[in-house]
TrEMBL record:
Plays a role in vesicular protein sorting. The keyword Membrane applies. This is Vacuolar protein sorting-associated protein 35. InterPro entries: Vps35, Vps35_C. It comes from Brassica napus (Rape).
Amino acid sequence: MIADDDEKWLAAATAAVKQNAFYMQRAIDSNNLKDALKFSAQMLGELRTSKLSPHKYYELYIRASDELRSLEMFFRDETARGCSIAELYELVQHAGNILPRLYLLCTIGSVYIKSKDVAAKDILKDLVEMCRAVQHPLRGLFLRSYLAQVTRDKLPSIGSELEGDTETHMDALEFVLQNFTEMNKLWVRMQHQGPTREKEKREKERNELRDLVGKNLHILGQLEGVDLVVYRDTVLPRILEQVVNCKDELAQCYLMDCIIQVFPDDFHLQTLDVLLGACPQLQPSVDIKTVLSGLMERLSNYAASSVEALPNFLQVDAFSKLNHAIGKVVEAQVDLPASSSVTLYLFLLKFTLHVHSDRLDYVDQVLGSCVSQLSATGKLCDDKASKQIVAFLSAPLEKFNDVVTILKLTNYPRVMEYLDHDTNKAMAIIIIQSILKNDTRIATADEVDALFELIKGLIKDFDGLTDNDEIDEEDFQEEQNSVARLVHFLYNDDPEEMPKIIFRIRKHILTGGPKRLPLTIPPLVFSALKLIRRMRGGDENPFGDDTSTPQKILQLLTETVEVLADASASELALRLYLQCAQAANDCELETVAYEFFTKAYLLYEEEISDSKAQVTALRLIIGTLQRMRVFNVENRDILTHKATGYSAKLLKKPDQCRAVYECAHLYWAEEGENLKDGERVVLCLKRAQKIADAVQKMANASRGASSTGSVSLYVELLNKYLYFLEKGNPQVTGETIQSLAELIRSETKKAESGAGTFITSTLRYMEFQRQQEDGGMSEKYQKIKMEWFE
């Protein structure tokens, strides 16, 4: 209803303006001054209404002010035809109502100033004083806006056609400041016009009119006569006086922002203490973070765009002033939200990184100030504040692209302590990603300690949280994989420092729970093994102390993998034991290697019960043992006998067969004659064939079952015989191979076999080797009769 009434009143007032404007224009066309003034006053009388909302009143004002341009041109033409401008100035003051009279006075006043018949300062002073007659907030605000509009290009500033002496320039400045002061008072008073229940609506309407007041500051910013001295001594104090004294939240926030945006950067820098001194005096409800962040952002951009300006920042000690001002604001505004205070320090940090990127002590000081503020709040539960903290901590990372530099900031981890568990982990991921992206090397044990202090949210559980808590498995895996990749960036070529790094990494990683250890221990083990092999290639004793020898590090790995075995990761622990055994073999540490194999065997016997896992583990054991050269005959026989025994005890016969013929490799090594025992090789192969025979009998006994599986075992055995034949095992004869081949042939005739391709490929290979003319290999295959090959 109210909106409909507003539209009706606006339509009626607009129609009246149009009608009177029509008659005014007709009087102008006929050079009838009296009627022109009469109808223009009636037209302007429509602006006396109190029925319209500010938005609708603005539409009416625009239409009326547009019509006044024709009247202004008419006044100018009248003076050109010899009419006295002074008489016109007096004549318009006879209008019956004060509001139309003042609009007409402003219009003729602008022409009067342009004529130069009188000092501009006198007319300006007269106009700004007489406008005080209208004290209605809305009507007075638009009247003074019109005054600023028509006099804007007629102020006697430096460079204008009305330029005068210095005192005249100050008069123009005084005029703008006075008009700004009165407009601000009217704007602030608007909040009290009407019932309390409509206060929110009025504040919204006031916000729409703010540019009318701010226009004066834009004019001040463009006046050529306003240099640094004038701004510092006159303009800024007068404006700040109004800002502070009005005690209005909307006005203070907007006008402070206007000051920052309108006047030059250098002015702000040279008057920083004055501008900042006003901030604690603002109303507690003012969004001070927007004001200060805007100031710091502008100064940061100024520093980034002008290298010559950097000495000025140092000269005025901008950092200390900003830091002190933010502290005062935070102290004065007790109810300031944590997110707002963090935002203030975020922009101060960005300012510091732009202007004083070489001063880590300044950066650390900002972090410390933020810690002091957060100490009163405890851990942040506000998502907005947490996001601001993440942005706050990310700023130095993005600037330096070097985590090593971040580790020098003592207050950095103190800020992270105020993050909740999830946000702390997110920040830790950001730090790790920075290291991986920028290929940053963490090269000392102390740096490792500092880094793990930052990412401890990923390494261990926070207070009150356990691994049993519900977590997203995919996210958890990704987090721990990031930690695993990180371990490989903790590296130093110095053989004395690298063992210290390994020990520190172990200390931190072992604080993780059983869910983390299987993901984080392996990279630690492989990093240590890499160090051990590098030690082996160095001097005989390059380390100077016993704690950094390969044997000591392997002992450390023994204890480390034991922890993993206790964390229900037996299969992984077995793999790592075997890797460590290979490293001990490379370093010719027989006792240590034997110990690792012993632990691997114990795990196999006691912890690994799944048949598939047993098969995989046994293949790893056999493969690793086959490459070991450090063992004496006795130790090797013991380990080999154990592995062979495990093979015969596998649950499934085919798995037994394959494991047993794989054990044949344990008796035949290329590197030395003492590791070649042809009889035992053949013994393993024959034992495997017996198991394959048993599988074949079971297949034949099963009605309707195919013998594919057992035939495949025979073919695999045939390939093993061929391998050892080529390697020169004298115990492998052509008759033995011929016998096995005939067995394969007979079995394939009994039942359709899916191993046909495998058999055909093997036979073709044998025929190919027989036809070779190089002598050695061909002679070995000539011993095998191939008449049965079709």
